[in-house]
Each structure stands twice: as C-alpha cells, then as structure tokens.
Design a protein that fits this description.
Strand order of the largest sheet: 9-10-24-11-20-14-15
Strand content: 5-15%
Largest sheet: 7 strands, mixed
Radius of gyration: 57 Å
Helix content: 40-55%
C-alpha cells in the first residue's frame, strides 16, 4: 500500500511537471486553414505532426540539434517542418560581403546582376547591393547561430565567421575564446565578474577531466599541470597591441598560479607585489591605454618538487627611455614622476619642495580619470617595504627621479663664441645636491666634450646650446634606463632572498610569463617600432615552428598520410633584419663606427645591398623611408634619427662625472672600480636587444608554450564596444586566422583505438565484425559515413576533424539514450511485481512509470515497452477503489464532459491507468476534440471547419449549445457567402455594402468576407473619387477615379457617366491649352462656352480665356493678332487686323477724316505755291478732283527733307505720281503708261513721302470727280499700289478710314483694299516687283490676278465644311447638357 501511494505521488508530480511544461511551451493560437492539413485540423499550427525532435547537446555550449525519431538521423540544420515562417523566408544562398563598418556582413543572394561576374544581395537590414562574386565568401546561414567557445568547432574557418563568433561572444560578456590551446582575449574596458573568488575556486577545484569555458585561468591551470604532471617547463606568451589587456592578463595568470600553487614563505605575495614597482617605473598613459607597459617583460616563476612557488626572476626588454625626455602629445611620462609630484613621501622634504614646481618633462596631460596617483604611490611604498627595499634605497630612487625632472628644467642659451651657458643655475645646483656630484663637474660634463686625439692629449670643446640640451636629455634617459634595470635586478634579488634555502638549479621547473608588445603599424614608424616588430617576427616564428613541429611529429609517429600544412615562413624577414653583414641592424651598427656616419648613408647602403630582396621595399616617394614585408603586412620605417636612437651611449666624461657621485645608488649604477671599455660604452641598442632576444628565444624553446592573443576592440577605450575593423586587423596581425586554419586543416580530435571503440561502438549497436581494434575503428567510421578526407587511423590513434566529431557525438547521444530506455524496459518487464517484497515494490513501480514515460517520449514501441505499459495498467486497475470505477462508468455512459473530467482527475490524482480510464480518456478526447473543433470553427468562421466539427459531433451523437450555435452560424455564414459571391461577382456597390454589413452583424470574418470588405472599401472609395471629380469637374480626379474603377472592374452607371464627363473635360482642357497658345477667336469662344456650360472653374489659362471673351473686343483682337504673329500665321494676322481696323474706324472714323491729317498743308499756303491762277479756288479744291497737274505736294513731308536736291527730286516724283494717276484714269493721254506705272511704283518704294502723297492723290481724284465713269479704272491702280507698298505710318489710319467710305466699299469685294493694305503694312514694301517686266503693266488686272489672293483676307467661318478639318474644337460646339443641341457660344459685337 505504501509503495502504491508513493507511486501515485510520483505520478502526480510527473503530471504537474508535464502541465508546467505545457504552459511553458504554450504559444499564440493560430488556425491552419489549408486543405489537407491533417485529421486533427483544429490543433495549433506550431505543433505540426513531425518525426523531428529538438534536443540540446552536451558539447558546443548546449547547442540545439535535431533528431529524426523514426530514422535516427541527426543534424545541426533545423528541418523545414520545425521552421517558423520568418526562418523559412531566410532560407536560400547566403554569402559574406565586405562592409566598411563591420568588415563583413551576412547577405542573402536574391538574383544576378547585369554587371559581369556580379550578383545582387540583400543585407539583414533590408539594404540591397550589387557585389563582385569573387569578393564574397560562402555562408551557411545556420552558422551564424553557432557561437562556439572554440573556433576550431566552427563549420567553416572563414575569417568573417571567426570575427562574427568573437563579436557575438563579446556582446554576451564572453571575452575569452579558444583556438584549440590558444586563448583569444578581447578587452572589455570594464570590470566583469570573471575574476571573483568563486570563479577562481571553480577553475582551481575542477573535477578531473572537466571542461570549463575559456579563461586565462585555463591557460594558467594547463601550464601548472604541465609543470606538476609532466615535469616540463612551461611558458605563457601574452601578446597584443597597447591597450589590449596584456598587463591584466599577466596579473590574472599570476594570481591564479599563486592560488593553486601556494608558496614557500608566502613568496607568491612578493611575486604579485613586484607589479606596482615595475608598473610605476615602466608603465605610462598613452593614447591607446592609460596603463601601457612601455617595456617587454619575461617573468619566470620557480616551483619546487611539491609544486609550490619558491621564487621568481624578471628580465626586461627595450624600455622606452625616450619617453623620459619627450612624451608624445596627449600622453604622459612614466607614472613614477606624477606619483612623486602629487604624493611625495613625507621624509623627502627636499624632493617634495622641488617636485611641486612646474616641470618641463611633465607638461601636457597630468591628470587621468582612471589613475589615482596618490593611491598608487602608497601601493609603491608598500611594495618597496614588502620586497625589502631600505629607506636609503627608496630615498636614492626618488632623488634620482627628482634630479631627472630638475635637469629637464635647465635652460641653455648661447654665450661667447656660441658656447652653451645656463640661463638659471638653480636647477643644476639642485641636481648636483641630490645626486652628490660637484656642480661644476656636472655643468662641465653637460656643456663640454673632451676630444682625445692620440699624441695630442685632451682637447676640451664647448657645446652649443642645442648640443648641451641634447647632452642633458641623454644623461636623463641613460640614468633612468640604468635605474630601471637596477630595479628589476633588485626585485629578483628580493625574490631570491625570500626563497630561503630553496635555490634555482638546472632541474628547477618554471613557468615563464611573457608580457610583450604586439605588432605595431603606425603612420610614422621609427627605430622603436622596428625593434618591436622584430620581436614579434621572432615570436611568430617560434609559434609556427612549435605548432607545426608538434603536429608533424605526431603524424609521423602515427604513420599516417596527411596534407602538408603550409605556413608563412618569416625567416626571410628575420634575415633581412639581423643577418650579417648586410642586415638592417648590422648595417646600422656599422654606420655607428664609420666616420661621419649618418641616417642617409645608412639607408643608401641598405638599399644597395637589399634591393633584390623580395621582403625589402624601397619607398621612392619618401627618400628617408624603407619598407619591410612583415608576416602581418608591410611597414614603412622612417630612418630619421635611427643612428642616434641606436647609439645608446654616454660620453666618457659624463660617465666619469657620475662615477664621482657620493650617492650610494648612483655608485652602484656607475661603480668606480668597474672601468667601462670603449666597446662596451659604444654598444648599440640594436645589438643589446638582439642578445636579449636570443636569450629569450632560447628560454622559450626549452618550454611548452601556451599562447594568449589580446585584442583591443576599439580605439576610444569605450566599454563593451566591438569595432570590427580594429579587431579584424589585430586578428590578422597576430596570426589568429592562420592558427584557426592550421587547427582546422589538421586533425584536432584524437583518441586511442581502444578509447574510440569504447566510446563509439554503440553507434553500430555494438555489433562490429572485426577481430582487431583498428579494424573496429574502420568499421565504425565507415558505417557512420565519415569522410575519409577528414579522418585518419594511425598506429595507435584515430584522428578526425570537427565535422566528424560532431557527427559521432550526435549519433552516440541518441543511441545511448535509446539503449538506456530499451535496457531499462527489458529489465523491468521481466520482474514479477507480486513476488517483490513491499519495501521494493514501491521503487519498482516508480521506475516502471518513468521508463514508460521515456518510451512514450522517444516513441519506443518494442515488445518490452508494450509489456511494461500493460503491467503498469494492470497494477493500477487492481488497486482502483469501487467508487471511482462507478464515477468513471457513469461519466462514460452519460458522455458528460464535466463528469468525465472530474472522474479522470481523480484517476490522475490517484495515478490510475486502466482500460476503463483509457476508454474514458478516449471519449473525453473525442468530446474535447469536438468542442475544440467547434471552438476553432466558430472562432475562425470557416465553413469547411464548421461542417467538419458538426460532422464530428454527429459521429457520436454529441449535441450541446455550442453545437447548436455552430449550426446557426453555419447557416448564417452560408447566407453571407452567397451574398458575398453575388456582390463580388457583379461588383455592385449596394450589394457589397449589404454583404459587409451582414457579415459584421454575425461577426463573420472569413477570407471571403475580408476580400469582400476590401472590394467594398475600394468601390466606395472609387464612388467617392468619382463624385468629387464630377462635382469639381477635375480631369485628374475623374481620371484617377475611372482608372481605379477599371482596375477593380466597377462598372455601374456613375462610372459610365464619369467616363463621358471625363472625355468632355479632357477635350475642353486640351482645346483650352491650344486656345491659350493660338488665340483663335472661334476656338476661344467655344472652349469658354463649353467650360461655362459644365461650370468648370479651370486653372489660370481658363481665367485668361474668359478675360479675352468677356473683356473689350479690341483687346481680344489685339491678343489674337499678337498670337498669330507669335505662331507665324501672317494670314490670320491680316484677317484679325482688318477686323481690328474695322472696329477702330467704326468708332473713330470722323477722327481720321483726311482733312484732319495733321501733316496737310494749309489750303491757302498750298494754293499760293503756284503763282498764277486763282489761289482761293485752288485752296478750296486742295483735297478734291482737279484737271491740272499737281503744282506742289499737299503735305509737309517733302518740305521736311533737309537736302535741297533730294527735296526737289521728291517733289518731281510726287508730281509725276499724280500725273500717272490722272493718265491711268484717262484724264490725260499718254503713250507710255507701263513705263509711268513702273516709275510710280519704284519711286514709292524708295520714298515714304511719295507713298503718302500717292495715296492722297488717289483720294483727291476720286473725290467730286465730274467723270464718275472714269473712277472705275483708278481702283485697279490703287489695288496694285496697296499690294506693293504701305502708306506712311502716320497716314495709315486715315487711308483705312477712306477705304471704308461707302463709295470705296462698293468696290471692296472686287479689289480687297483692306486686305491688301494690311498685308503691305505687315510685310512692308515689296521689293520683288522690280523683277516684273515693264510690258506686264500693260494689263494691271493681270498683274493683280497673280499678286492678290482674296481668300486670304476673308474672316474664317469655322462652321463651314471648308474649315471643319482645321477646327479641332468642332466637337465642343455641341451641347453636353442639352444633348443634340448646339452649344450657346458668345458672338463678337456688331460694328
């Protein structure tokens, strides 16, 4: 009974777990409305029926992988059945494309480009680009999700994917990443919880074989294991550029080693205490780092036989001494100087008073927010005390630093013969007192130089102010450099003293930590960068040789075939720098020894010796530069100052002066009893550095190396900011990409034959038909379809790559789980529960229930699994209480869902699993399915679903309110769909709105309703647009509305009306445009009438047209004339001007009577110009017919001619013209009429006075002519004249008025005087008549017949057939409103 109760409790707990999981897995409900979507069509779309299951891997940081539960197939790629819609959209071909900001960005290939070898891609942010295929890198989309802790596990070793993985880890606060045994550290520029006591404990107290995330502690731990377990010296090589976190990595490695190793006499604390000293004197604030190490450091930690630290030794390299006298802009000097000036110890009063002054060497940046100089001075003093520095030593150290600052304040100026003299002796006196030397000797050493010429003794040479200043700088640099070397030696001495009896021997095991400057490429690179990059070349060579040597040695020992691993051999770079006699450093040393050596001569020699070297580059555009092709890229070096920086020596007289000091520390630095040879004194910095580097590489080659590559993620030192370009360049320079490729190209996973078979034989069900272990390995690899190119079977090991490792591990995970389930079921199914004692029965049924649940989850349907299920059911049914049985039976018979749930809830609570419970569950499932189906159907308003749900209810006679509601909904939806179908088919606005309203009343929102509503919205919108367009008579709105109607097939009456109206409005607008441009009266009046009929407001051109029509007719005619000329239509210009003159004369004809012509002579004046005859009679008839010749011109035009001869000639021409008129009328006889006509015309062409007088002659001879029958002949000659020359401008309107007199207008229809006059006025005198032969004038009417075209002068009638084709606006003359009726068009005024 107790076991059964315990079983029920376990079942209840399991049920609660499943319920919690169900709630956790709950997703937003969504209906799958596609046809054929499965039997349980009402279920959630997010839970498709699939054989794939997502699982979590124990490797690769818990990555998700996928298992086919039927075939057992495993994959990292997510199957399409499990993908969301968004994930499905992201499938396709993906590539990495180059990006200015991120270096590389993932992009999907969406098509080909018209450009050759290019393709169109789309970035994740939606931007599209056209890229060169050759500049892209293939990308597997799923790789972006696999952010691994070891880059060798990446699917692809491309640099973009490596950069992506590092960025994603960095963004997740994971600054450490492995490349096999190499650690990459990205500086976060903020304190992360990575170095707490609990983290240290986690790594220090790890279980044997446990794998922990990448960390600097891992590197230190592995190095410690190498010392203690394999008894081999180790080294940790930390590299990276300034600000990348090398110093911090060194500190953390030291702290971890101190934690796990312990020490003799707590010496590990002293090892850590050395840091404040070395950082104070060797670190400085730079642009890139507030605590940048300005020297290289190799720290060796000594371990005794028990693995405890008993000592250490530090060796320093290439201290940046030039910083003492010349800090770079925006940077600081070494920390010690600021600590001294801000927090000088109280027992150094003399130093303190001077340190407070303004110091030349400290000008610029003095305060840094991240540095507390006062606190760090306290740490320094504590470190001095802990490491045994005496008070005297401390005082001397600070005195030397103060002396250097004071020397920097010395100012030199030119004295007699340009010799250097001190401007102020106080700083030098202060220095002499501090360092214990004679002030005169100090001044002499700085401002003079001794020349020792063999056979001539010593010659003292005065230095210039500039040379003295340089000498002072050199003294400061060398004293500080010697002080730093002494400090390192003194720290080592303190460590040796603290180790007690334990002494370092050849067999002492060590861990060396190398904190070295990284590869540098600046805009300006000098001798310091050459030495730094030379160091990195050596370290890269060490890395390559070490890595490949181990790899190849292992491959050779295993006797396997492998592809040659290529790597960049940087030996040529090292030879270029160091190989004698023509390497960079040997040539530089040689230049120091030759007389008058210079930077220029050094470069010239270097170019001549190395010009054929493939790694040497001559920079033609920069004469003082040369380039070296380093492994990390080409660097250009400026040789300016190379010799001086390489010299690294003091003059003998300065050294002697220092040796004479009474300061204890200075005596130690420059002892008197140790004579410095000239060779030693002139030893170059390059040669010293080479010797140190050779010693360093020798030490490293005797160790097992561990590498830490530190990366600086941005230049602003901003916290948690990852700038891809910065990181990419550093990864490239540090050889990380190459390291990853090496690991990937090799076989990083290795197991012995026995271990391999033991681990992976389960993948073959343990049945491997082979007698040898090696043969079994071959069978496993073959059956697992492992690529031969990725696997090797050696003499003792199986070697394989990351891809095969993943495949083997995935298969093994599944097989192990299935095997465990099957074995457990088989074991349990063979046990007779009744034979078990009560105490064991409880555990048995708990195990049986768990095993059955696992079998259900993993779909295990073996005989043993089914037997176990039956055993469990029988056990539960036998123990079910009668009351629960009755409840179950009653609920089953009544089909009451609530009763079924209550009864089954009791069974679930009690853990009952019987045949009756199964039947009730099945019935409840049907009811729940039916209710769920009804709910889904009614929620979705889907007709097919409603029918299916009601069919489900019918299958087991299930009737409930929900079923009745669904039935009613079905009828309403069928009615709605019928209405929708009719409305959508006919596209009737009324029907569509009715259908939408009905659907909304029954809350039906099916796809057809949504389609109907969209269509109704569009139709209503179209109707609205048409209504607005019709009311406003807007062509644009009507056109937009009509097009919208055509697009959706809307064809109701209003559409047809608006189409007709649109045509009319469009035609009016078209003709309005033409009328505005041409100004044809009939067209303008027609357009205005048509627009007014429709009440069209129109734009500005309509306003202009209406102004013409409704304004003065004279203005309208003027506009017509102007536009006719503008359009080059002279014929219409003449027609318009005739009408304009008609209007003028009709209104003002009396004003233009000939007698009112202002240029007429006074009648009596004119009459008296003839001295005989009656003057009164002549004056009275001056403008009337006369028989006699014209004695004088009747106007003053001729008199105004100033040239007397010309005036007389014109008078004769005027008289002759009048006589020609008389003779042509027959009032006089002549035998040469053609000649006289020709003369008249030619004279008129040449003289405006003649033209005016001639036309007055015509008027005169037709006025009161006593022989009216002879007047008819004059009209021919008048027509000829009018066709050839116009009157004078002043006389034009007077002639127009006369031509419109009744006696003249009688002949207008025959001779067309008005048209001829307007034509000649428009065209001007016709010089072409001079080509007419004289004889042709015998018949003037014949001449007129081909010169005069009367049709041109007639006002056009655009209603006649003649002009119908020309009148494009003819269709507008019909009324739009009054169908079939003519349009009411305004008429011009009568005159």
């Amino acid at each position: 009974r107790r076991s059964f109760e315990q079983y029920k409790k376990d079942e209840k707990a399991a049920t609660e777990r499943r319920q919690r999981k169900s709630k956790a897995d709950a997703v937003a409900f969504e209906v799958d409305t596609s046809k054929g979507s499965g039997v349980r069509w009402w279920e959630k779309k997010e839970e498709p029926k699939t054989v794939w299951r997502a699982c979590i891997s124990n490797i690769n940081d818990g990555m998700e992988y996928y298992v086919n539960t039927e075939t057992g197939k495993t994959t990292w790629e997510k199957p399409e059945e499990l993908m969301t819609e968004e994930e499905l959209n992201q499938t396709g071909d993906w590539v990495w494309v180059q990006d200015k900001k991120e270096c590389y960005a993932p992009a999907k290939v969406i098509g080909k480009s018209k450009k050759k070898n290019c393709q169109i891609v789309q970035l994740e942010n939606g931007d599209r680009r056209t890229v060169d295929k050759a500049k892209t890198t293939p990308l597997m989309r799923s790789s972006l999700k696999r952010v691994v802790s070891d880059l060798t596990l990446l699917d692809n070793m491309s640099s973009p994917l490596i950069l992506h993985c590092l960025r994603k880890r960095f963004e997740a606060d994971k600054i450490y990443t492995n490349v096999g045994t190499i650690l990459i550290s990205v500086n976060p520029y903020q304190r992360l919880p990575l170095y707490t006591e609990s983290v240290q404990r986690k790594y220090a107290e790890r279980k044997l074989g446990a794998e922990l995330p990448p960390h600097v502690y891992n590197i230190a731990h592995n190095a410690y294991l190498g010392v203690t377990s394999f008894l081999k010296n180790q080294s940790i090589i930390i590299s990276g550029e300034s600000g990348a976190g090398k110093t911090e990595a060194t500190k953390q490695a030291l702290q971890y080693l101190a934690r796990i190793a312990g020490s003799v006499s707590d010496i590990e604390k002293k090892v850590l205490q050395a840091n404040p000293i070395l950082e104070a004197f060797g670190n400085a604030k730079t642009i890139r780092n507030d605590n940048s190490s300005r020297f290289g450091k190799y720290l060796e930690i000594f371990f005794d036989s028990k693995g405890r630290i008993f000592g250490s030794a530090t060796e320093n390299y290439l201290l940046e001494k030039v910083r003492v006298v010349q800090p770079a802009p925006s940077e600081r000097n070494f920390h010690i100087f600021y600590q001294l000036t801000k927090a000088c110890p109280s027992n150094t009063t003399k130093i303190k008073s001077w340190a407070a002054l303004d110091n030349a060497y400290l000008r610029g940046i003095t305060d840094v927010p991240t540095i507390d100089d006062a606190r760090e001075m306290k740490d320094l003093l504590t470190a001095f005390r802990d490491l045994g520095f005496s008070e005297t030593e401390q005082s001397d150290i600070f005195s030397l630093c103060a002396a250097i600052l004071a020397l920097g304040n010395c100012v030199f100026q030119s004295g007699r013969r340009d010799a250097a003299v001190l401007k102020d002796p106080k700083p030098l006196n202060y220095v002499a007192g501090l360092i214990g030397v004679d002030v005169k000797a100090l001044q002499k050493a700085i401002t003079t130089r001794e020349l020792r010429i063999p056979g001539q003794g010593v010659t003292l040479v005065n230095l210039s102010a500039g040379d003295a200043s340089d000498s002072r700088h050199a003294l400061c640099k060398f004293v500080y450099g010697r002080l730093f070397d002494w400090l390192v030696m003194r720290v080592n001495q303190s460590m040796a003293e603290s180790s007690g009896s334990a002494k370092r021997t050849k067999s002492t095991l060590t861990i060396g930590i190398l904190d070295i400057f990284g590869f540098e490429i600046f805009e300006h690179n000098s001798f310091e960068q050459l030495c730094i990059n030379f160091t990195n070349e050596e370290l890269q060579q060490h890395f390559n040789q070490n890595t490949f040597k181990l790899e190849q040695k292992m491959y050779q020992s295993e006797g396997i075939q492998f592809d040659t691993i290529d790597f960049i051999d940087n030996q040529p770079m090292l030879d270029l720098i160091t190989k004698k006699p023509h390497g960079v450093l040997p040539l530089l040393d040689e230049e120091l020894r030759v007389p008058q050596g210079s930077d220029k001569k050094f470069l010239s020699k270097l170019v001549s010796k190395q010009k054929s070297n493939r790694v040497f580059k001559r920079i033609m555009k920069k004469p003082s530069h040369f380039g070296i092709m380093h492994y990390a890229g080409q660097v250009q070096y400026d040789t300016t100052g190379f010799l001086e920086k390489n010299r690294d020596s003091l003059t003998e007289d300065i050294v002697e002066m220092l040796q004479g000091s009474n300061m204890k520390l200075l005596k130690t630095l420059y002892p008197k009893d140790r004579a410095v040879s000239a060779k030693e004194r002139k030893s170059s910095l390059g040669s010293q550095f080479q010797k140190q580097l050779v010693r360093l590489m020798r030490n490293l080659n005797q160790t097992q190396p561990h590498y830490i590559r530190c990366i600086k993620p941005n230049n602003e030192k901003a916290s948690m900011k990852f700038v891809s370009k910065n990181c990419y360049e550093q990864l490239l320079y540090s050889g990380v990409f190459e390291a990853v490729a090496i690991r990937k190209k090799g076989f990083p996973f290795r197991l012995s034959h026995e271990e391999f078979v033991k681990r992976y034989s389960i993948c073959n069900d343990g049945k491997i038909l082979s007698s040898s272990t090696k043969g079994k390995c071959e069978v496993i690899l073959r059956n697992m379809d492992c690529k031969k190119s990725n696997t090797r079977i050696g003499r003792t090991r199986v070697l394989y790559r990351a891809e095969e490792h993943k495949k083997l591990e995935l298969k093994r995970s599944i097989r192990v789980k299935n095997k465990e389930i099957s074995e457990n079921l088989e074991r349990l199914s063979q046990i007779d529960a009744n034979s078990l004692p009560e105490s064991k029965r409880e555990a048995f049924f708990i195990d049986l229930a768990e095993a059955v649940r696992d079998a259900d989850i993993f779909r295990v349907n073996t005989p043993q699994a089914n037997k176990a299920r039956r055993m469990l059911e029988a056990f539960v049914e036998a123990r079910m209480d009668p009351q629960t049985k009755r409840k179950l039976q009653k609920a089953y018979d009544s089909q009451d869902m609530k009763a079924l749930r209550e009864a089954l809830k009791i069974c679930e609570k009690e853990g009952y699993r019987t045949q009756l419970t199964r039947k009730c569950k099945e019935l409840l499932t049907k009811i729940e399915d039916a209710e769920a189906a009804l709910e889904v159907a009614m929620e979705s308003k889907n007709l097919e679903f409603l029918r299916k749900a009601l069919e489900m209810c019918k299958d087991f006679n299930y009737t409930r309110p929900s079923q009745q509601k669904a039935q009613k909904m079905l009828k309403n939806i069928e009615k709605a769909q019928l209405g929708i179908s009719r409305a959508v088919k006919k596209v009737k606005r009324k029907w569509l709105n009715q259908a939408v309203a009905f659907c909304e009343s029954i809350e039906y929102d099916g796809a057809d309703y949504r389609e109907c509503k969209v269509l109704a919205t569009k139709v209503n919108r179209c109707h609205q647009m048409l209504t607005i367009g019709r009311n406003e008579r807007s062509e644009a709105k009507l056109k937009k509305g009509v097009r919208a109607c055509q697009k959706i097939g809307y064809k109701e009456k209003i559409v047809n009306q608006c189409e007709i109206l649109l045509y009319r409005v469009t035609r009016i607008n078209q003709e309005a445009t033409h009328a505005y441009a041409r100004c044809i009266e009939d067209q303008v009046r027609t357009v205005v009438a048509a627009a007014d009929e429709l009440k069209m407001v129109g734009d500005q051109k309509f306003q202009k047209l209406r102004k013409w029509v409704n304004g003065s007719y004279d203005s309208f005619l003027g506009a017509q004339y102007k536009h006719a000329l503008k359009n080059g239509d002279k014929e219409r210009a003449v027609q318009v001007m005739i009408r304009k003159k008609d209007l003028l004369i009709s209104k003002h004809g009396e004003d233009y009577s000939l007698k009112r012509y202002p240029r007429l002579k006074q009648p009596m004046t004119w009459a008296k110009e003839k001295w005989w005859g009656s003057s009164e009679r002549r004056a009275k008839n001056m403008l009337k017919f006369q028989w006699e010749s014209l004695h004088s011109p009747v106007t003053t035009h001729v008199d105004e001619v100033h040239d007397e001869q010309m005036r007389a000639s014109i008078k004769r021409q005027v008289t002759a013209a009048f006589e020609t008129i008389q003779k042509y009328m027959g009032q006089r006889n002549t035998s040469r009429m053609p000649q006289r006509i020709r003369e008249l015309l030619w004279d008129a062409l040449s003289s405006e006075q003649v033209r005016t007088e001639a036309y007055i002659g015509f008027i005169k001879q037709t006025t009161d002519n006593p022989e009216p029958e002879k007047i008819d002949r004059i009209w021919e000659l008048l027509s000829l004249c009018l066709s050839i020359f116009p009157p004078g401008k002043e006389f034009e309107n007077y002639l127009e008025a006369w031509l419109r007199k009744p006696n003249v207008r009688t002949f207008e229809s025959k001779y067309h005087f008005r048209g001829l006059l307007r034509q000649s006025v428009l065209n001007g005198p016709d010089e072409n008549i001079k080509t007419i032969q004289q004889d042709e004038y015998k018949d003037v009417s014949n001449v007129l017949s081909y010169r005069v075209n009367p049709k041109k002068f007639a006002w056009p009638d655009y209603t006649s057939k003649k002009y119908l084709n020309k009148a494009s606006w003819a269709d507008l003359k019909k009324s739009f409103v009054r169908k079939g009726m003519p349009l009411k068009i305004s008429k011009p005024p009568k005159f």
